[in-house]
Amino acid sequence: METQDIVRKVYEAGVVGSGGAGFPTHVKLGARAEIVLVNGAECEPLLKVDQQLAARHADELVRGLALAMQATGAREGIVALKAKYAEAIAAITPLLRADMRIHILQDVYPAGDEVITIWMATGRRVPPGGIPLNIGVVVNNVQTLINVARAVDRDQPVTQRCLTVTGAVRQPLTLTLPLGTPLREALELAGGLSIPAADAAFIDGGPMMGGLLESLDAPVTKTTGGLIALPADHLLIRRRRADLRSVISMARTVCEQCLLCTELCPRHLIGHELPPHLIVRSVNYNHVAQPSVLLSALTCSECGICEAYACPVDISPMRINQELKAQFRKEGARYQGELRKADPMIEGRLLPVGRLVARLGLTRFNVKAPWSDAVHAPERVWIRLRQHIGAPAQPCIGVGDAVRCGQRIADMPANALGVPVHASIDGVVESIGEDAIVIRRA
């Protein structure tokens, strides 16, 4: 199969990155690279998706890796997994070609940050403000490459998503749901809450980088990695509910410039300028730092270590970085710093996941979330038109139209970054809004 055919099929199937912000995968596969890296770290505590997918669908994962290597012209394929994912390693190993290998990652956070994953698996370092392609690497996660294999070999579009439902639920599990399924139904499939509903709050994604959910009516999207229920007074919920003014006030009042946020920042450890303690100080005192210090906030991965683990007085440099990033992007600012030497203490300063779980108060929720083969058929789905980085897709069907699962219901405008969107159930189009298409099961 020609490269352009692989790229075309991946685009038409609506494949995007399943482990992050949803970057369109066909764009990555249309580039040239030396290495294709499978990011199977899944370093966010509590989530159990990729490790189980890799074990259960090893053949499709390796096939997706082979297709990605063919499309990009890569000479090597690397599957990065943690040693504790023994079932996945055992399933994948006999399927690997001579130009593929498994790399065993340390059980640290954030091993899944692609900058850290690349360094661990290849020794290469992504420059500040750069992307993996700058050093000849393309990174995809497990679910993405499985979707690539299905798109190319079966012409199967992305209509479902695997996710973990865990935390304060009766039966933690990992399951597959049609896109657009309300997260409320995912919670019900996990047996409901194990605490009173009035005392619960929810995180969409992992406990470190996931967002606070305002409503369980929110739908499953291509990038939904998990649903975590926690007590509303849990520190992870309190931090997410803190307003920016109080965060900055706290930083101005109690920051003692101990440097721990900088010394444990993964991007700083890898050789990026990014010094959270200096950014906090410059914000506190009217931005007296050099411009490059503030602009380096653009390289923050928002992993949350500075907030959740490093700071001894509960400041959130990450929240300040987020605000600066939004401001700089609005202004069109760019950061162009030099790659410095990696911290000689980097090996000892990466954060063990077990220690992070304890610090976050998640030990009692850090349990297995076994795979469920249960098939769920929602009565309605709310399929978002923007489940990827880039422009929203434009509806190509009308209200009242009958649609089939897998049918394209929204296309991308010409020359816009994004992918088509497909129906996830058989049914009738009930409504078309600015951000979603609602389909009622027939």
TrEMBL record:
Q: Which Gene3D superfamilies does UniProt cross-reference here?
A: 3.10.20.600, NADH-ubiquinone oxidoreductase 51kDa subunit (3.40.50.11540)
Question: Is Iron-sulfur among this UniProt entry's keywords?
Answer: yes
What's a GO cellular component annotated to this UniProt protein? membrane
- Which residues belong to any copy of the 4Fe-4S ferredoxin-type domain? 291-321
Q: Which UniProt keyword terms apply here?
A: 4Fe-4S, Electron transport, Iron, Iron-sulfur, Metal-binding, Repeat, Transport
Query: What one GO molecular function would you report for this record?
Result: metal ion binding
* Record has Cell cycle as a keyword: no
Domain of life here?
Bacteria
PANTHER family under this entry? ION-TRANSLOCATING OXIDOREDUCTASE COMPLEX SUBUNIT C
Question: What is the protein's given name?
Answer: Electron transport complex protein RnfC
**Natural source organism:** Pseudothauera nasutitermitis
